[in-house]
Amino acid sequence: MREVAISTTPIRLGQFLKLAGVVDVGSDVRSLLESGDVRVNGEAEDRRGRQLERGDVVTVGDTELRVA
Asked: 3-state class of 54 per DSSP?
């Protein structure tokens, strides 16, 4: 599991995915979420505006990222 440090909380899921380098541009977030490959704390997520707090775990495919 890789930890991704953020400077302020909460952070939106779309912003977090860009910060973590999962997507290059914000427009790629929508298609990634529509694919059903994104989970937050074990639950499928399709909202890019989902608010994340420190300690949340975002899973994209086989990659796990913790908000730090």
From this structure: coil
- The dihedral region occupied by 31, where left means phi > 0, alpha psi between -120 and 50, and beta the remainder, is alpha
pLDDT single digits (tens) 44-58: 999 999 999 999 999
| Ranges of each domain in the chain | 2-67
Residue 53: closest CA among 12, 2, 3, 1:
12
**May I ask the CATH architecture of the domain 2-67?**
Roll (3.10)
- Judge whether 45 and 13 are in contact, CB under 8 Å: yes
Q: Are 54 and 68 within 8 A, CB to CB?
A: yes
pLDDT at 25 over 90: no
Residue with tokens 């086989």: 62
